[in-house]
Specification:
With 602 residues, this protein is α/β, with parallel strands linked by helices. The protein is built from 15 helices and 17 strands. A seven-stranded mixed β-sheet has the order 6-5-4-7-8-10-9, with helices on both faces. Strands 13-12-11-14-15-17-16 form a seven-stranded mixed β-sheet. The longest helix has 47 residues. It starts with 10 loop residues before the first helix and ends in a 10-residue tail after the last strand. Its main location: membrane. One of its GO terms (molecular function) is methyltransferase activity.
């Protein structure tokens, strides 16, 4: 080596430097052993104290049975009465914290862990067991949804009216005050595909009290009614109380929680969504979730503006301009005007993939989304001002290419090949498995298939097999696919069923007391490393109706712990064998008890 003066160092100098380095190395090794001893003793001390704390929650397998998680019994307190309609991720109490631009405050904003409620949401005073289906479509108990705003503010539109202890639903709406059936009859004349099983799944944006979706049930069309949380109208709460599928949501800055090409039909009846504003970004989202060949139906401004403009507090020139902008925007997205009469206009999304070639040209708006933009990503995914072009490899996902309902339910969809390990044979096996399971479930819960169970949720479905096995029963199923699991929700929709993405570490987008039956299959086994089991079960309690049921199919490791928590929520549970009586998997059949609040409002 060289020194700063450039003269070479002698060999003697090198040797003299090696000795101190050797000594230093020995000293460091000894010091590391010393630190290791301290760490081990501290670790043992930590383990000993920590074990005392853990013993309070998880008892040893020697005492409680090997191979099972055991929890300390806890009785959860009641929330105060002003939490009777608590929706944690869409809480009006928190709206002031968020911006008003594009109504972002109405989107999902879930509380942090330290603000989560560890209490049981009470029913309203005077709550009664909901009226049974199909009578519930026409009436519900006032005390179950004690909001009279619609009755007083929209009485001339026949949404609902209060009579004694009940709300009655005459079937009216802003654009169909004379009744929804007449309105849908006209729509079917404009769209013959609504009559022959071609159209099966629909979404109603800004659904009111879901009369449109309720009427379509008798016509073989399954509708997701969508509306935001509000302080007065409680639209989704009314819908679910009536036994009609619905979910809280708003088209704002994030995608709706559905895969691309989900719906055969989308509907807006004066839903007040500004379709032509912000570069048409809301309409671009409708385009994404509507399958090729699907229909978009609009009634209300600016449709039929020539005869309606006087009642809209505007001018005919403004409405004509708005209609022309809408038509131009729809054309740019490969929609064509399909039919129109009176207040209803119908556009159809093109099935011709070549229509989108024009989007590759420079300075075209809206542009084509780049290939990196995943069309099915829809959990807290921002909206973007671009057109999601249908994947050309999916030649059988267009509306005309799908089998008609009900054949569609039992045919393996083309998109199952996009799922890892998915194939026609795995689809068939899954269907057969669920037929056997459903038969077993009905023995354990005889209420399934009767008027006692209407609103059902499969909390972690794969292909919708549970829902398919119950298709002949007087109920509907919300199929939930975890946002962290394989994307199988597209397969669910291609079968003619409905569902949503969700992360069970957070609260679901619904009101309390909205489901009669919750079903889960290995949810805690799959998600307990991310989600606190206690909060998942408290969320299940929030959305389950009093006297409602939960079928919890789980690894034997979790069953006893779940039963302990459930007892603290005032559920009655019993352990049962699965249909094949295997030891590694058990079932809990639980029923939520009805109770009334003893607390005052906070």
């Amino acid at each position: 080596m060289k020194y700063k003066d450039g003269k070479p160092g002698s060999q003697q100098d090198k040797s003299s430097r090696v000795v101190p380095m050797t000594i230093m190395f020995v000293v460091l090794c000894g010091f590391s052993f010393y630190l290791g001893g301290i760490f081990c003793s501290e670790k043992n001390r930590f383990d000993a104290s920590d074990a005392k704390d853990v013993a309070k929650v998880v008892q040893s397998s020697n005492e409680m049975g090997a191979g099972s998680l055991q929890m300390r019994s806890v009785n959860f307190p009641e929330c105060s009465r002003d939490y009777q309609d608590y929706t944690p991720c869409t809480d009006p109490r928190k709206w002031k914290k968020y911006g008003t631009h594009r109504l972002t405050f109405m989107e999902r904003h879930c509380p942090p862990v330290f603000e989560r409620k560890e209490c049981l949401v009470p029913p309203p005073d005077g709550y009664k067991v909901p009226i049974k289906w199909p009578k519930s479509r026409d009436e519900c108990w006032y005390r179950n949804v004690p909001y009279n705003w619609i009755n007083t503010q929209k009485s001339n539109q026949n949404w609902l009216r209060k009579e004694g202890e009940k709300f009655l639903f005459p079937g009216g709406g802003t654009m169909f005050p004379r009744g929804v059936s007449e309105y849908v009859d006209l729509m079917q004349n404009l769209i013959p595909e609504m009559k022959d099983g071609t159209v099966r799944t629909a979404i109603d944006t800004g659904c009111g009290v879901a009369s449109w979706g309720g009427d379509l049930l008798d016509r073989g069309i399954l509708t997701v009614s969508l509306a935001p949380r509000d302080n007065h109208e409680a639209q989704v709460q009314f819908a679910l109380e009536r036994g009609i599928p619905a979910i809280l949501g708003i088209i704002s800055t994030q995608r709706l929680p559905f895969p691309s090409k989900s719906f055969d039909m989308a509907h807006c009846s004066r839903c007040l969504i500004p379709w032509t504003e912000f570069g048409g970004i809301y309409l671009l989202e409708i385009h994404r979730i509507l399958r090729p060949g699907g229909f978009w139906v609009l009634s209300g401004p600016p449709v039929n503006y020539e005869h309606r403009w006087r009642g809209w507090n505007t001018t005919i020139e403004e409405q004509k301009s708005d209609y022309n902008r809408l038509q131009k925007l729809l054309t740019s997205m490969c929609f064509k005007l399909y039919n129109q009469k009176d207040d209803i206009a119908v556009w159809q999304k093109s099935s011709d993939i070549s229509c989108y070639d024009k989007l590759a040209k420079p300075d075209v708006y809206p542009p084509k989304c780049d290939d990196s933009f995943e069309p099915d990503s829809a959990w807290y995914t921002p909206l973007r001002s671009c057109v999601v072009v249908p994947n050309p490899k999916h030649k059988k996902s267009g509306l005309k290419s799908l089998p008609k309902w009900p054949e569609r339910l039992s045919v393996a969809p083309e998109r199952i090949s996009d799922v890892h390990g998915g194939s026609a044979s795995t689809f068939k096996h899954d269907d057969s498995k669920w037929k056997v399971r459903a038969k077993h479930y009905k023995k354990l819960v005889p209420a399934i298939g009767t008027d006692k169970i209407r609103n059902v949720m499969d909390m972690n479905t794969v292909y919708g097999g549970f829902a398919a096995s119950l298709i002949d029963d007087p109920l509907w199923v919300m199929n939930v696919v975890s946002s962290y699991a394989a994307n199988t929700l597209a397969v669910v929709y291609d079968r003619g069923l409905i569902g949503t993405y969700h992360d069970w570490c957070e609260a679901f987008s619904t009101y309390p007391r909205t489901y009669d039956l919750l079903h889960l299959d290995g949810l805690f086994t799959a998600e307990s490393h991310r989600c606190d089991m206690k909060y998942v079960l408290l969320e299940m309690d929030r959305i389950l109706r009093p006297n409602g049921y939960a079928i919890i199919r789980e690894s034997s490791y979790f069953v006893d712990a779940v039963a302990t928590i459930a007892k603290g929520m005032r559920w009655g549970c019993r352990k049962e064998d699965t249909e094949y009586s295997v030891e590694k998997e058990k079932m809990l059949i639980c029923q939520k008890k009805i109770w009334y609040s003893s607390n005052k409002s906070s």
